Amino acid sequence: QVQLVESGGGLVRAGGSLRLSCVVSGRTFSSYAMGWFRQAPGKERESVAAISWSGAFTKYSDSVKGRFTISRANAKNTVYLQMNSLKPADTAVYYCASRSVTIVTMGVGDYDYWGQGTQVTVSS
Fold it and tell me: Of 32, 28, 30, 27, nearest to 1 (Cα)?
């Protein structure tokens, strides 16, 4: 059983920054690829970023490239999403997820365990 808990969401003005954290427990953290996803009202859940078990390989959606950075600190069982230059279009509930294999993918259906989500609201 794997548990994930997100934190760090909040309200920020356009152009501001936030850092989301996801703490993982229940399994060996480094054995899993990790991803961040988001879902805005009335829209499908979409992939934001993903990172390999080692942290050596990352992927980003086109909408966040150059603005968001995913990283992980395995000794702390934590994965981060640093979000800079935030836009109102980034407003969504952000979810942390883990995959039971080490290969990085961006598909929602590829992930096995999910956190409860944390709200990010960007005002204009």
Answer: 27
* Neighbouring C-beta atoms of residue 28, cutoff 10 Å: 11
User: Using an 8 Å Cβ cutoff, are 68 and 58 in contact?
Assistant: no
* 93 has a pLDDT exceeding 80: yes
- Residue 114 — φ and ψ, nearest 5°? -135, 145
Please name the residue that has the structure tokens 């640093």.
82
Spatial contact of 121 and 27, defined as CB atoms under 8 Å apart: no
How far is 60 from 38, CA to CA, in rounded Å?
Answer: 12
Q: Which residues contact 3 (CB under 8 A, 6 or more apart)?
A: 24, 25, 26, 113
Q: What is the pLDDT of residues 4-33, one digit of tens each?
A: 999 999 999 999 999 999 998 886 655 678
* H-helix segments, the chain: none
The pLDDT mean for the chain works out to 92
Give the percent of the chain with pLDDT over 70.
96
